[in-house]
């Protein structure tokens, strides 16, 4: 496994010699790696000749300074996991490599800016779009791998690739969960034992709502019930629980079994913000 720190290093030492008809898979991450991240690496290894994983905690996508300051890091264990997975290259840029100066460019993803994550995390998708564009330009992958766990991010990256004509394929990988259903997330490391056990409400509310919708209950009734469940979970504070189109993120007021839909949820457990989603009609 080769570790590199700058785009020039990658492009002069490796990229040119690898490109002879070989495909490069790319997995961008912010580190504190778990099995969900490693599923993306496995998928890339299966579909591409070489796999590059980046680890970079991108300051510009954090709208909350405390969230950035407390974002977990674990470089040595991360490198060990990537080595064991058979990763070919790891890109570990400094902040000054990615941001020699503060970008003046801002990206606006239209409607996606105003709903759910866009509404609750102003500027977040601009930061994601800028860093992912920079990483795509540096690595020049044939395929890039993203997790369904961040469903709205997937919608944003799809728009980015179409609108800016990035010449690559996106591959979306299903959400990896703990045995009890909690979606794996680097932020789970920050939960204390009580928060960890009450965090299960994210997944249990999604599965409960799905079951009730498919059994014919109205979205309004389901939504009210879930709000009550959150109110009865003392360490959880719900931000949103919404039924949306999984690509455009239009919000639905009623459930239509003939229409593609997913439920997305965001909640704080103590000071830790977690998100999850579940397809209802894929
Ligand atoms: P992050 O390090 O949180 O920026 O995540 C890096 C990539 O891993 C993103 O494409 C995420 O959507 C994906 N990812 C994070 N958690 C999971 C999970 N539990 N299952 C699958 N993919 C995930």
Give an overview of the whole structure.
- By secondary structure, the chain is α/β, with parallel strands linked by helices.
- The protein has 2 domains: 2-173, Rossmann fold (3-Layer(aba) Sandwich); 186-277, Pantoate-beta-alanine ligase, C-terminal domain (Pantoate--beta-alanine Ligase, Chain: A,domain 2), CATH 3.30.1300.
- 40% of the residues lie in helices and 20% in strands.
- It contains 11 helices and 9 strands.
- The chain has helices at residues 7-18, 35-47, 65-69, 75-84, 95-98, 116-120, 124-139, 151-163, 193-198, 200-214, 219-231; strands at residues 2-4, 24-29, 50-55, 89-91, 143-147, 169-173, 236-244, 261-269, 272-281.
- The chain has a 6-stranded parallel beta sheet with strand order 1-4-3-2-5-6, with helices on both faces. The chain has a 3-stranded antiparallel beta sheet with strand order 7-8-9.
- Helix 7 (124-139) crosses helix 8 and helix 10 (200-214) packs antiparallel against helix 11 (219-231).
- The longest helix is centred in the middle third of the chain and has 16 residues, at 124-139.
- Adenosine monophosphate (AMP) binds at residues 29-30, 36-37, 39-40, 146-147, 149-150, 173, 175-176, 183-186.
